[in-house]
Amino acid sequence: MEQKEIFLLIFSASLTSLVFSISLVTLFVLYHRRKDYYRKEITKTRIEIAEQTLRNISWEIHDNVGQILSTLNLYSYKVHEESPTELKPKVGELQDLIQTAITEVRGLSKALNTDYIKNVGLIKSTELELSRFKRLKFMDTQLNVEGEPFIIPDDKEIILLRIIQEFFSNSMKYARATKMDVDFIFKGKELRIYVKDNGVGFESAEVVGTGIINMRNRAKLIGAFLNLESEINKGTRLEIIYRKKNTDNVT
Fold it and tell me: For residue 2, what pLDDT is reported?
């Protein structure tokens, strides 16, 4: 075999190997992009289903439970009128409890209802949640807003609120906290959200619960940074960083 033929053979083999390698790399990159895309779509679909479920529950609470309590409230006034004088204070206490129940049911219905959240926005929805905790004497709360708030698309506001609500829920169930602080800090196109409780805390290595996974998946879906820190007997702190994008469509 002549030297020229050997050269051409080596060149062809090298070119074939190069094309094969490039094809493998391209397929690998495309595979991972597709995998991330489908994972994001699955997460998005799950969230949409969850939101629809919460909306349905909100309607059921408002229409059914709320109606029952309202009817009970009307009966209580009739009972109060017809009660002996010595029983009127007790009936009055019962009326107060019914009114409290009506207020809380309405508040819970609003917290679950996506349409209501879209109307009042992220900050007001968070404020209503904290007010409910304080009103029911679950814990002391504080809300702080710094900077000039900018408009966040409805779907992303709802996801941010659900992350915050997940933290509230975990704090209520496990942390035995007596204080909850929430800070919204707007700077340019960046929003930093800090949520902190003074609960029992946990070892950071143990952060593997479903609630924490849901929080991280939701944050990833809207391109937000999420960090959760905790120490035993020193409470838990959630940090969310959301950056407004030029491609955000506000509806």
Answer: 57
Look at residue 144 in the predicted model and tell me its pLDDT: 96
As a whole number of angstroms, the distance between CA 226 and CA 104 comes to 30
pTM score, two decimals?
Answer: 0.66
Q: CA-CA-CA-CA torsion for 132, 221, 215, 56, nearest 10 degrees?
A: 50
Helices (H) and strands (E) in the chain, counts: 6, 5
Separation of alpha carbons 113 and 170, rounded Å: 20
Identify the domain boundary among 77, 112, 147.
112
The domain containing residue 88 runs over which residues?
Answer: 1-112
Domain count, the chain: 2
- Domain contains 241: yes
Q: What percent of the chain has pLDDT over 70?
A: 68
Q: Is the CB of residue 127 less than 8 Å from the CB of residue 143?
A: yes
